[in-house]
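Hey, I was hoping to borrow your eyes for a little while. I've dropped the whole record in just underneath, so have a look:

——
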Amino acid sequence: MARPQAHRSGTHDRPHAGLSRRSLLAGAVSLGMAGALGAAGCSRVPDDGKVLGGSLLETLRDQGSVKIGIASEPPFGYVGDDGRATGQAPAIAEVIFKRLGIDEVRPVPVDFGALIPGLKARQFDVVSAGMYINPLRCEQVLFADPDYLMLDSFIVRKGNPHGIRTYEDVRRKGLRLASGKAYAQIDYARAAGIGDVLVLPDQVAGIDAVAQGRVDAFAGTRITVKSAVEASGRVSATEPFQPVVDGKPAYGAGGFAFRLSEKNFRDAFNEEVLKLKQNDYRELLEIVGPFGFGMDDMTDLTAKELCG
């Protein structure tokens, strides 16, 4: 499937602002520690909603290392067998931080919902987890431009006996659907009129539920579904498709997140992201290709557009 065309200024198609790979509420709860100081930086914490320039980048260059928050979610970001951060986002981080003069990247694994609170509490310096960019999160953190745009897919029984292709198919045929905990796919399904979605821990549990006949399909991102079914002979993946909410594409575009106090840091990082996208995304694809990302997952959407 051809990748969706990104919204450009002056067109009528606007990225749907209300949804994300993880639910909008994930990460929205503050730890109440915005004023706590961590060893990673010395910039003062701004008032809520206030953006400052910040000097964290210089501090990280001096110390030679950066802490990245990841959510242990292959292939977006996780800790490998060697104890090092790996996955799509950490691989990008390794390249960009070296270009910014920071040689060591240290992963800090947390639950997905703890990424933004952990960033604000200075447990780490940047969120490197392929986090979907949406207006609610944009009120709390600064995003670099997205480095991928993801379609959805279903885990179904071998041969896809019900011919499931979209959420509307599931609703129209009265089928049973499951998805992962806090996945945006739950919101997409409900927007399509599916009132009862079985929430499971992850795609591994989804495979079992589909194979055992407890549900007819499990909804997830294209790449997580494809990765999950490759290791299973019991199920298969449907063709990727673009979710639609209220008649508009619900774009799932993710990127790196920074504290509101560190605009300078974000801007320097974003310059390097844009360089990776030059020459038809060639260098970016070389970095993320080993994790299953391809040209269909590239996007020229901006954080400003996704933030609304």
User: Anything to note?
Assistant: The first strand starts at residue 65 and ends at 70. The chain has a mean pLDDT of 85.
